[in-house]
Amino acid sequence: MAPIKRKIIFVDDEPNVLQGLRRMLRSMRAKWDMTFAEGPQAALEILKSMPHDVIVSDMRMPGMDGAQLLREVKTHYPTMVRIILSGQSEQEKILRAIGPTHRYLSKPCDPDVIKLTIESSCNLRESIQDPILLKVISDTETLPSLPGIYQEIMSAMEDETSSLKSIGTILSRDMAMTAKVLHVANSAFYGQHHHVSSAEQAVALLGVDTMRALVLQAHIFSTFDWEKLQKFSIEKIWNHSITSASFARMIAAEETTDQWVIEDSFASGLLHDIGKLVLATNFPSQYEEVLTLAQTENIEDWEAEKTILNTTHMAIGAHLLDLWGLPDSILEALAFHHHPGTVGHHSFTPLTAVHIADTLDKKGELSTDKSKEGTVDFPYLESLGLTERIHQWSAV
Ligand SMILES: [Fe+2]
Ligand SMILES: [Fe+2]
Known about the structure:
Elements: E1 6-12, H1 15-24, E2 32-38, H2 40-49, E3 54-57, H3 66-76, E4 81-86, H4 91-97, E5 103-106, H5 111-127, H6 131-139, H7 147-158, H8 164-171, H9 175-185, H10 199-206, H11 208-216, H12 234-255, H13 259-271, H14 274-282, H15 284-297, H16 301-309, H17 313-323, H18 328-336, H19 350-363, H20 378-383, H21 390-394
Helix pairs in contact: 3-4, 7-8, 8-10, 9-10, 12-13, 12-19, 13-18, 13-19, 14-15, 14-17, 15-16, 17-18, 18-19
The structure holds fe (ii) ion (2 copies).
């Protein structure tokens, strides 16, 4: 049986641009069913009769711009992947599009970048079987922050004298804010040839004015009434996230001089349990059941999540941040931090640092007893030739 082709719709008001895309992506015809819509109204008409998997839209179009079009698409076809393909000069418009847009590509765009972006977001979509979870991931525009830090960033943004450094420092302490600012900064609009994995770097790249607009006008950060959840403690998750981040950075610095690995280890430590925020805020009552089950059965949170929600915080976190275009090394750490041995390669990466940091913070120690359950993954560390390092890491 022939594999099902992915359906991609490209929207632009200029026929020449559509022609160019058609030519450039001809080699994908075996894998993709491509539709080229001349303008937003034409696109909406086509979508009414034929559902698509991905929309790639221009920003500046008469009548309805790309942001409005993607907002419509989000409302009516919530699980479609939404991509903006636009010129770098339209920063102001990007601010408007930040909500409904999953990924940004800049014109002119390398065909390989378009292919990779579309393929990776489709793989992701297909790997989530549950339509409710898929909708939650696709729908998520912001993640809730710790209320105190949320207030802190709002005050800093309203204060004209706030420096980039002080803003970066606030953001780097909060997983939700870091994830969102990395989403924006990793967009191709900012012309990066390498990825951005720290909040400080992201803020420096965006600048104070853009940051202020993103926070105060585009509302990229949010908070949540955590009182609704009795067992879920945002403070506990928050503390675990920053402790794991700093442990992961220290462990990475012991093992490598590669600054990327060290920075990515910090970000991965900070973000590794972000899927718990997504699950707890979207499914509050089930997540309370997860925590009760984990406690009464004395099992790991991810095991209880599997039983109650049929997914895990690792899968949800990695999928969401993949859709947001975060670097692969961070996604790998998110997806595999409880089972690093299943990753399929044997080298020290941010995943290694996060696995150790997470265990160290949760258990308070790293046991060197191979038979002891619930500590570090021994066979994995053995495959990396790192078991001798456990004593050293315990002292970070
Ligand atoms: Fe975890
Ligand atoms: Fe954790």
